[in-house]
Amino acid sequence: FTAFTLDGRRALTVEPGTVIAPTAASWLQGSGTSSKPSGTSASLAFAGTGLNVTQLPQGVSFDLRSSGFGPDQAEGAINVASGSRFDLQAGTSLSLSAATSLFFDGQARAAGGRVSMTAGAASTNVAAPSYLWLGANSRLDVAGTVLRTPSTDGLLRGSVLDGGSVSLSTS
Fold this sequence. Notes:
Blueprint: E1 3-7, E2 11-14, E3 19-20, E4 26-29, H1 42-45, E5 46-50, E6 61-66, E7 77-80, E8 85-87, E9 93-98, E10 101-104, E11 107-109, E12 114-119, E13 131-134, E14 139-141, E15 145-149, E16 157-161, E17 165-170
Parallel strand pairs: 1-6, 2-7, 3-8, 6-9, 7-10, 8-11, 9-12, 10-13, 11-14, 12-17
Antiparallel strand pairs: 4-5, 15-16
């Protein structure tokens, strides 16, 4: 999978010390993969999961939501505690979207990627607080980076990613 979406409807909390670092794995061909009969279990037909020596890791985008139970409800909050961390592959995205409030005091890194935070998008309840709060320990890092492509000829190859983008919004 290259994209994950989790919705904590009423509320979603990322506890201190949590590290979220999604990766995508590919099946690797073994020496006998092509001679296996059709219908062979993938775990028997392939050598395992991982990356070929000349392959960069495939990025995985991550979307956390707390959509609430409706526009007249005071639910739909996200709390990302201090000491928690999102480590995403270069060029991918992290999206946090809360129906009412979003408090972020952790760290997010997506080199050359996108970090988006939205709060209050679905709330029409004036009694429910609608805010996006970045705590004192929060860190959003989308700095550019060098992507070195593995090669078998001994030369350094790759590309340079520009810095990414950060979007913060509330309504």
